[in-house]
Design goal:
The chain contains eleven helices and ten strands. By secondary structure, the chain is α/β, with parallel strands linked by helices. The longest helix has 22 residues.
Length: 317
């Protein structure tokens, strides 16, 4: 092969990679592969790599996973993990949270440094895989919710963490509002957003968790717009549209009584969301997540969502 042939071949390969991974797309579509199924032989909950492989088989090229799951299989072995995901054919949209056993007590100033170092470690880890932002859930919710003092401490901790993530690692940092966490409802989101620098603390808007915490995800997207660093896409029942009137408690079993579903159920107006994001030229990751799939395999639920994104939302995977 002469030099000209080599360059043409290399250029063609690069264009193929761009097409596969959507280099020029406004939206990059990912899948969080932690879905718990009822059958141990098909569940993704205990095997993230089964999830990576099967999500890729139905068309997803980007995946997202919790650091705790990845460290369980590849502790201190980023090269081994990279080899395995390359063999599957996927890339990471984000690697979430802190390491197993590390502090997540964002509300406790006595643990602030431990929380920051725990999560900075994952930020540095995810950077090795080309991730361009960090998504983090906050710690476990107190039975009575986050107090005003808790929120002040949380805001200070995430502000420091977000500033260090951006200045030291060049990674925008986003907090993920999530049922059962220290950041769940409208008051808590408003407080954290008002008491942190938008450059340092971004937001991950989860359409399912926002709906099931009693809020309208479209209205929240319009309020936060470009402060949102990533969207998580999950659907709910039609009667919950615009914000449920019945916020589920921590004891509700999603394996027998789920409240999150593959896209297309009708509880979230995804077409209105896309229309708004188009109008403000928002760009970034739309990452699907489905906590449980008790009535079909996780792969089949992923296929339903893949079809909805491509055929109804008109976004290529």
């Amino acid at each position: 092969m002469n030099r000209r042939q080599f360059l043409l071949s290399a250029s063609g390969a690069a264009l193929a990679v761009q097409r596969v991974f959507g280099a020029d797309s406004r939206y990059k579509i990912g899948y969080t592969t932690n879905t718990r199924g009822s059958d141990p032989a098909t569940t993704w909950g205990t095997d993230p790599f089964r999830g990576f492989r099967q999500a890729h088989e139905v068309g997803f090229n980007y995946v997202e996973a919790f650091a705790t799951a990845l460290y369980e299989f590849y502790p201190n072995d980023a090269a081994g993990l990279r080899k395995r995901v390359d063999e599957i054919g996927v890339r990471f949209a984000a690697i979430t949270g802190g390491a197993r056993g590390g502090s997540t007590a964002f509300e406790d100033p006595a643990q602030r440094q431990a929380v920051i170092e725990n999560h900075l470690g994952v930020i540095r880890y995810s950077k090795k895989f080309g991730c361009n932002h960090q998504k983090t859930n906050l710690g476990k919710r107190r039975p009575g919710g986050s107090t005003e003092e808790d929120l002040k401490n949380i805001a200070e901790t995430v502000e420091i963490l977000g500033r260090r993530s951006l200045t030291e690692e060049g990674m925008p940092f986003g907090v993920h509002a999530h049922l059962g966490s220290q950041l769940q409802n409208q008051n808590e989101i408003d407080f954290i957003m008002a008491n942190t620098d938008p450059k340092h603390v971004r937001f991950v808007l989860d359409t399912g968790h926002i709906t099931m915490a009693g809020m309208d995800p479209i209205a929240l997207a319009k309020r936060l717009n470009h402060r949102i660093v990533e969207f998580h896409l999950k659907d709910t029942k039609p009667e919950d549209r615009g914000g449920t009137k019945h916020v589920p408690g921590p004891d509700r079993n999603q394996m027998t009584d789920p409240y999150f579903f593959p896209l297309g159920e009708g509880g979230v107006d995804f077409l209105a969301l896309k229309s708004y994001l188009d109008s403000i030229d928002w760009r970034g990751f739309l990452v699907v997540e489905l906590d449980t799939s008790p009535f079909r395999t996780p792969k089949e639920s992923a296929r339903i969502t893949a079809n909805y994104i491509q055929n109804t939302m008109k976004i290529p995977l």
